[in-house]
TrEMBL record:
CDD domains: NAT_SF. One of its GO terms (molecular function) is glucosamine 6-phosphate N-acetyltransferase activity. It comes from Coprobacillus cateniformis. PANTHER family: GLUCOSAMINE 6-PHOSPHATE N-ACETYLTRANSFERASE (PTHR13355:SF11). This is N-acetyltransferase domain-containing protein. Residues 1-137 form the N-acetyltransferase domain. It holds the Pfam family Acetyltransf_10. InterPro entries: Acyl_CoA_acyltransferase, GNAT_dom, GNPNAT1-like. It comes from the Bacteria.
Amino acid sequence: MKFVFYKELIEDAKMIRQKVFVEEQGFENEFDDIDQRSLHLVVYQDNEPIGCARMYPERENMILGRIAVLKEYRALHIGSDILHVLELKAKELNYQTVCLSAQVRAKSFYQKNGYIHFGEEYLDEYCPHVYMKKKIA
């Protein structure tokens, strides 16, 4: 597998997010202004895009988001690998904490990767979400 960072949202990442968040999960507002100020990660296997994420600074934290893996690759721990690569990049950029907004159904996945829940549960397009964070330094 190859992990590549891009300074702009490329078509490979758009395709994955469209398939996962819009077509599979029914979200309507997948692409936003934050994409313009984010660093984007795309995961490739045999030169085919199979996963993606974005990260952007907000105050003293690095925010992780739009973490997605194509359905046929989900049982291969690629999501955990994506988190690890994002955390290493955040550490390289001198951040000590990473935060994210997780769908409640994915909360246990993030907990297994060392994230803790904070704040109240809220709805994003009728889907329950929670804020989570992890100290990386």
